[in-house]
Amino acid sequence: MLLTRAPAKINLTLHVVRRRPDGFHDLESLVVFGGVSDILALDPGRPLGLSVSGPTATAAGDADGNLVLKATRALAARVPGLRTGAFHLVKRLPVGAGLGGGSSDAAAALRLLARLNGLPAGDGRVVEAARATGSDVPVCVEPRSRMMAGTGDRLGRPLMARPIYAVLANPGIHVPTPAVFARMGFQPGESRDLGDHPVPHDDLSHAEFLALVGGGRNDMEAAALSLAPAIGDAIDALAATPGHRTVRMSGSGSTCFALYDDRRRARAAAHLLAGARSGWWIRATALR
């Protein structure tokens, strides 16, 4: 039995550059990964398949349409004789919540299959399979902080030398990404200059990195808020916690985050927020 984590993906910044003629959007995003995750296991001794359990399994939908199996089939099409097996996914992250859970699950499957078949890290066929599976899958294959650009096909080098601490808060709603893009109203081929978008680099200190993130933005936030005002409640609740540095929405919503200077402040903020919002999904976590 092979086992791996599928960590939450958080977009610390997200700049929508343009809508391409093919309908996809070019993005620039600073992506990090949390200590909270789904868990994926692979049993090579059984036929290909997927079972799902865990607190958010019901919301994950039909196993046959899961990205884990889509990624497996994409890699099998590129690696003749690929050994597979039976996957079991323990679903712990909220679904459709701006945390890239399905994409991270698919990337976890590719890592397990690469390990099972002796494929080296960075094998081009794994990368191609990730791209064929979904836009967010390539950045999740090696879950490290980095810039992601284009449709998710262009990845920068890992950035952070030490973790930063955060509270993630989800008010229990689902915001479909296509609906958010539609509300933004980009026309095919349209580009927008929405202001400077800071890009981190290797020689930033920890404090400089946090300051750079604080000067960033998420271009999808206003559109998501218009569709789901509860996201504003999450932002306001996080902004009311002591010691926060930056509060923002992740991805296309509905999870929001607040950054803190250390683990103690993040845990205290999560405890405070959980006491006031008992129906929300709230986690303190390190981001890397």
From TrEMBL:
- Annotated organism of origin: Lichenibacterium ramalinae
Q: Which HAMAP family match?
A: IspE
Write down what this protein is called.
4-diphosphocytidyl-2-C-methyl-D-erythritol kinase
Domain (GHMP kinase C-terminal) spans 216-270
Q: Where does ATP bind?
A: 94-104
Output one GO MF annotation.
ATP binding
Q: One GO BP annotation here? A: isopentenyl diphosphate biosynthetic process, methylerythritol 4-phosphate pathway
What's this chain's function? Catalyzes the phosphorylation of the position 2 hydroxy group of 4-diphosphocytidyl-2C-methyl-D-erythritol.
